[in-house]
């Protein structure tokens, strides 16, 4: 097994490894350490079954079933199927997931700390995934803004990105917003957090999952969001993962910002996703 840095700011790639190698505790420890230290780990061409994916996810924590039952794998409920494909004229999974910069589930009080994706049917020319480090973003904040956000909380919400489903048809905008506030109440998280594994501070607050910063007025929020977006999307600080068949990609949800990119029309794409909660 060999572990090498992908970029200076995020990511490690592991080569020379098979699923069977994870029977060795030293291999497991090296894998978990790489995820925690480098925030993102890639294993190319890693052929595993859905059951093996969930078993491997269990090395990091507790795999949890996806919240929407119809998008769960039919045999392995811990797997969410992200797919634009159809079977018997019905969607195999949910399409267009996360096509914006975000930190997974920051809009809930206790988000799962890890996410694992396995590329089941992935094109290499489209549908890439972009990654950036929240540690790196915080490091590049001007000192003026570091001082302004020190000790402050961000207000997180899914309202900007919540999908309208069949049961919402007929609701007014006001009614839909009221429903969101009831079903998905806003939560607060500290804007600056120290990573327990590396000791480094990171920015916990992607604008698309935020309502604002506690104590900021509208102009301050607008300026802060514009600055954060520019830092996240700086091409020199973004890793583009161009998928190849059976890639396994794992990341820490709080320190890893990411965004899916569009899939070319008519090109099939299916990825299996596991959300991994902390062990009780």
UniProtKB/TrEMBL annotation:
One of its GO terms (molecular function) is dioxygenase activity. InterPro entries: AtsK-like, TauD-like_sf, TauD/TfdA-like. Its EC number is 1.14.11.-. Keywords: Dioxygenase, Iron, Metal-binding, Oxidoreductase. The keyword tRNA processing does not apply. Residues 3-274 form the TauD/TfdA-like domain. Belongs to the TfdA dioxygenase family. This is TauD/TfdA family dioxygenase.
């Amino acid at each position: 097994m060999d572990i090498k840095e992908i970029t200076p700011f995020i990511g490690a790639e592991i080569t020379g490894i098979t699923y069977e190698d994870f029977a060795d505790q030293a291999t497991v420890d090296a894998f978990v350490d790489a995820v925690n230290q480098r925030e993102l780990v890639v294993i190319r061409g890693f052929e595993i079954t859905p059951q093996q994916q969930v078993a491997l996810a269990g090395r990091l924590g507790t795999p949890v079933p996806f919240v929407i039952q119809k998008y769960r794998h039919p045999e392995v409920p811990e797997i969410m199927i992200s797919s634009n494909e159809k079977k018997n004229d019905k969607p195999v999974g949910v399409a267009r997931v996360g096509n914006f910069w975000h930190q997974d589930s920051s809009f809930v009080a206790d988000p799962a700390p890890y996410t694992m994706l396995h590329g089941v049917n992935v094109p290499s020319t489209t549908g890439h995934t972009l990654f950036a480090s929240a540690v790196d973003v915080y490091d590049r904040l001007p000192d003026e803004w570091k001082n302004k956000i020190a000790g402050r909380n961000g207000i997180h919400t899914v309202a900007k990105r919540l999908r309208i489903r069949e049961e919402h048809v007929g609701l007014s905008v006001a009614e839909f917003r009221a429903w969101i506030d009831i079903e998905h109440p806003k939560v607060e998280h500290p804007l600056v957090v120290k990573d327990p594994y590396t000791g480094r501070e990171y920015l916990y607050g992607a604008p698309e999952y935020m309502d604002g910063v506690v104590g900021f007025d509208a102009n301050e929020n607008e300026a802060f969001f514009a600055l954060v977006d520019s830092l996240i999307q700086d091409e020199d600080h973004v890793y583009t993962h161009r998928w190849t068949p059976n890639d396994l990609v794992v990341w820490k949800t709080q320190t890893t910002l990411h965004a899916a990119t569009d899939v070319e029309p008519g090109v099939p794409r299916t990825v299996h996703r596991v959300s991994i909660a902390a062990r009780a």
